[in-house]
Amino acid sequence: MTRKQQQWQLQRGVKMSEEVASEVAKMACALKSLAVFTTLVLEQDDCPQDLQEMVDEGLASIDKLFIW
User: Of 3, 48, 54, 64, which is the most buried if we count CB atoms within 10 A?
Assistant: First the structure.
């Protein structure tokens, strides 16, 4: 099986094994997908503001670890 090329790299100074970084990157991609979904939901009036804040905080954390 051919190994899929990674679409990210760690920010300078971030240290973790390749295996751990790969798993964290999967979670980061899932959160980015959630952010897109949340943006669509936010167009509705009944979406809570704290949901957007939670997603924004998660995305900021991703940016501290990875360069996309």
Answer: 54
